[in-house]
Write a structure and sequence with these properties.
Number of strands: 0
Number of helices: 4
Largest sheet: none
Distance between the termini: 91 Å
Shape: elongated
Strand content: under 5%
Oligomer: single chain
Radius of gyration: 35 Å
């Protein structure tokens, strides 16, 4: 038998398996809605849902702070002092640091 007859014989006996395998390859890798793209999109959706949860928590905490500011007039001064280092006219602010001062010794140069 010639080579083409062997190939044709193989194809004719296994045509259903070949069609199934080719169909699976197309749907898993080549199609616009492939499995690989679906997995990537599912991962992206999961990341976006995590970001939504983070922003919702941040929104809730910001809403609580805003409510506190509206209800308590002393909260505005507290925030101004903590965040923006503002002070009243009759007080001094001292900023303490844990860092050691760096000294340059000119004799070692």
């Amino acid at each position: 038998m010639s080579r083409s007859n062997l190939v044709w014989s193989f194809i004719s006996h296994n045509k259903y398996w070949l069609v199934i395998i080719i169909g699976l390859l197309i749907t898993c890798f080549l199609d616009e809605n492939s499995v690989m793209k679906r997995v990537k999109l599912e991962m992206q959706i999961r990341d976006l849902k995590e970001q939504i949860a983070k922003y919702n928590d941040q929104y809730a905490s910001d809403q609580a702070k805003l409510k506190e500011i509206r209800m308590n007039p002393n909260a505005i001064t507290k925030i101004a002092r903590e965040r923006y280092f503002m002070k009243a006219d009759d007080e001094d602010i001292f900023v303490l640091s844990d860092e050691l001062p760096t000294t340059t010794d000119e004799t070692t140069k």
